[in-house]
Structures are given as structure tokens and as C-alpha cells.
Amino acid sequence: MMRSMAGVETEIDLGDGSDSEDSEGQQPWKTQLETVLEEEEDEDLASTQSDTRPLINERDPRQINECLKVSFEDVIAEPMTVRSGDRVWIWSNALFEVSRVWFYRIITVLLAVPVSIIAGILFAILSCLHIWLFTPCVKMVLINTGWLETLWSSILDIIILPFYQSVAKCCGGFSIQLNRQ
């Protein structure tokens, strides 16, 4: 897993500015940087060992809910000819964002666990039915009706295909010419 260091701020303490080494035999800035890198490696190790850890950062990896990425300007826009006061616009924007985020959090707290349990049970039932009922039934029908496939193929090759080929050859001799008068 690659991580970009663009958003991470690392404080580097160069001490007194000299090249002297501390008691551990390393420079102070190197010790702090190594500590940060080791913490990131520990997080990466934990994220590869856990099934849910990678989902914390990337919750829509397949961009399923791309249509829900809505900002204030996507919903409310004032043209140049009609404008409200600047304070009204700022407060409206702030209230929109706060209410959107907090009401979503409240509704998810109330509905996320029950809906995920119901969805899990539904997908488990559908998977069980598909694996243990539908697929064996379809396979059994296909095995027992293999002779019908052979019969239908023979009927098509012996009767229907020659008939339509002869009709095509008969109709292939016709030509139509359009003249503009």
C-alpha cells in the first residue's frame, strides 16, 4: 500500500545545528523521521491483517455513490443579478454543511447496524439458495435435457437451415433500382 507524504507534517528538530550525534549514536532528526516511518509501517501491517481496516480510509473504492458527492454550490447558486448578503451566504453555507454532516451521522447511527444486519441476512439467504438450490437444479435440468439440445440442433441443420438457404438464393436474384424522375 503506497501512501503519499504530502498531507503529513513532520517536525524536524535539528538541535543546536551541529553535526553531533546523541547518546544513541543517531542524529535527532533521523530518529524522529524513523519513528514516523515505523508508525506508518505498523499501520500498514495492521491494515493488511484486518479485513475492515482498509475500508476506514477508502469507503467507496468502486465509486458506487459518485452522485452523492454534493457541495453547497451544487445545490444552491445565486446568479449575478440576484444576490443575498455576504453574511447570509456564509451562514447558509455553514448551516448546510453542518446539517448535512450531522444529520447523516445521526441517521447512520440509527439505521446502519439494523440495515447492515438485514442486508447480511438477505445476502446469506440468497447465496445459500443460489449455491444449494438454483445451481444444482439448473445443472440437473441441463444434464437430463442434453438429448433435446442434440435433437434441436439436428432439426435446425437438416430442415430449417436448408430451407432458409434456398429462400435466400431465390430472393438473391432480385434487384431493386430506384430512379429519381
UniProtKB/TrEMBL annotation:
Membrane topology note: Peripheral membrane protein
Q: Briefly state the protein's biological role.
A: May act as a scaffolding protein within caveolar membranes. Interacts directly with G-protein alpha subunits and can functionally regulate their activity.
> Mainly localized where?
membrane
Instruction: List, alphabetically, the InterPro entries matched.
Output: Caveolin, Caveolin_CS
Q: Which organism is it from?
A: Astyanax mexicanus (Blind cave fish)
Q: A GO molecular function for this record?
A: molecular adaptor activity
**Locations listed in the record:** Cell membrane; Golgi apparatus membrane; Membrane, Caveola
> What does the similarity note say?
Belongs to the caveolin family.
Give the Acidic residues compositional bias ranges: 10-24, 36-45
Could you tell me the superkingdom of the organism this chain comes from? Eukaryota
Residues annotated as region Disordered?
A: 1-52
Membrane-crossing ranges are: 102-134
Keyword terms of this UniProt record: Cell membrane, Golgi apparatus, Membrane, Transmembrane, Transmembrane helix
An individual GO BP term:
regulation of cytosolic calcium ion concentration
UniProt GO cellular component terms:
caveola; focal adhesion; Golgi membrane; sarcolemma
This chain belongs to which protein, by name?
Caveolin
